[in-house]
């Protein structure tokens, strides 16, 4: 009589080798990232290094920085995206800190603050033109009251793009900061209050340090959105002047001048600028805050 040898299941044998079959659940997500993000990025780099109008692989990049028409788009984009990003985050922090506690009308106010998210860029631009344009309600009111002699230019220039980025970007900054601020333990502030700390001191020494990790992430995400601005620059800005941003240059090169290699080079530089900003912000966060991010959900 021979004993029956029970062979371990495939799952157990793989587990003995440190392989978990549950990792297969991540395969669809990995494929999506590879197809929609990694492959286009690698292809874009390769395309940018095969210039149509030049011979050297890096001539597209050299032309971008040597030609003021191209290089000024980087300055224009930074001049719009950086202020809009900081305005959104700085405005979102105190509002999120105040709204983390329940009060009457809190849900209505929160819903009103995030309404621009549901409007869409084109609808938002049309509304801003009707309100802030030369023939908009605001200028009609100012002219009717005799406060100005001619319409105030708030569209088709730098201000138009800046205001559109603030209106469209603030809801995202607010939602992110609200989620992070809601995770801060209220007992920390109560403990500081019992030690005699004033509200301003409690915010500066207790709440704000715990908000720094979330604020840094919010700053990065908001900047990435603002730096790649395109529709607002066309609809509310001056595409031939202060609103000639990098995304617009990339589109013109690829679609109007039929030079996809130069368009890809501009797009790669746009992505590089975003990456540099993210690295700088996260590096500054690590210098300013070294503790665990246990105070919030970010």
Fold blueprint:
Elements: H1 10-16, H2 27-48, H3 59-66, H4 68-99, H5 106-113, H6 121-132, H7 137-144, H8 158-181, H9 186-194, H10 199-227, H11 231-235, H12 246-256, H13 260-288
Helix pairs in contact: 2-13, 3-4, 4-8, 4-10, 8-10, 9-10, 10-13, 12-13
Care to describe what's here?
- The protein contains 13 helices and no strands.
- By secondary structure, it is an all-alpha fold.
- The chain has one domain: MetI-like fold (Orthogonal Bundle), CATH 1.10.3720.
- α4 packs parallel to α8 and α12 packs antiparallel against α13.
- The longest helix is centred in the N-terminal third of the chain and has 32 residues.
Q: How would you summarize this macromolecular structure in one to three sentences?
A:
By secondary structure, this protein is mainly alpha-helical. The protein has helices at residues 10-16, 27-48, 59-66, 68-99, 106-113, 121-132, 137-144, 158-181, 186-194, 199-227, 231-235, 246-256, 260-288.
Q: Give the % helix.
A: 55-70%
- How many strand segments? 0
Task: Give the averaged pLDDT, no decimals.
Answer: 85
Note the main sheet. none
Q: Termini separation (Å)?
A: 64 Å
Number of domains: 1
- Please give the radius of gyration in angstroms: 26 Å
Please tell me the CATH architecture by its name: Orthogonal Bundle
Judged by helices, strands and strand pairing, the structural class is: mainly alpha
CATH class assignment: Mainly Alpha
Molecular shape = flat
CATH homologous superfamily (4th level) name:
MetI-like
Report the order of strands and helices. HHHHHHHHHHHHH
Low-pLDDT sequence parts: 293-298
With helices defined by DSSP (H or I, 4 residues minimum), what is the helix count?
Answer: 13
Instruction: Determine the CATH topology.
Output: MetI-like fold
Strand content: under 5%
């Amino acid at each position: 009589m021979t004993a029956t040898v029970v062979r371990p299941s495939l799952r157990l044998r793989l587990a003995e080798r440190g392989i978990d079959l549950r990792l297969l659940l991540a395969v669809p997500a990995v494929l999506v990232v590879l197809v929609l993000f990694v492959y286009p990025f690698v292809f874009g780099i390769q395309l940018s290094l095969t210039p149509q109008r030049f011979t050297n692989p890096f001539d597209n990049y050299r032309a971008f920085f040597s030609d003021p028409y191209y290089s000024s788009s980087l300055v224009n984009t930074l001049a719009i995206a950086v202020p809009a990003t900081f305005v959104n985050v700085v405005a979102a922090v105190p509002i999120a800190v105040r709204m983390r506690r329940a009060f009457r009308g809190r849900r209505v106010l929160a819903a009103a603050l995030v309404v621009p998210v549901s409007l869409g860029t084109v609808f938002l631009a049309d509304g801003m033109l009707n309100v802030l344009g030369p023939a908009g309600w605001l200028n009609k009111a100012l002219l009717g009251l005799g406060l100005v002699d001619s319409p105030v230019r708030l569209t088709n220039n730098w201000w138009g793009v800046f205001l559109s980025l603030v209106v469209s970007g603030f809801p995202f900054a607010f939602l992110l900061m609200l989620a992070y601020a809601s995770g801060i333990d209220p007992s920390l502030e109560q403990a500081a209050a019992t030690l005699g700390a004033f509200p301003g001191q409690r915010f500066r020494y207790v709440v704000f340090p715990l908000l720094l990790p979330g604020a840094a992430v919010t700053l990065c995400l908001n900047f990435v959105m603002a730096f790649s601005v395109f529709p607002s620059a066309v609809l509310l800005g001056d595409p031939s002047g202060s609103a000639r941003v990098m995304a617009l240059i990339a589109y013109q090169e690829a679609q109007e001048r039929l030079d996809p290699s130069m368009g890809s080079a501009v797009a790669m530089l746009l992505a590089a600028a975003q990456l540099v900003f993210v690295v700088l912000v996260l590096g500054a966060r690590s210098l300013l805050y070294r503790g665990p991010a246990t105070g919030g959900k970010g």
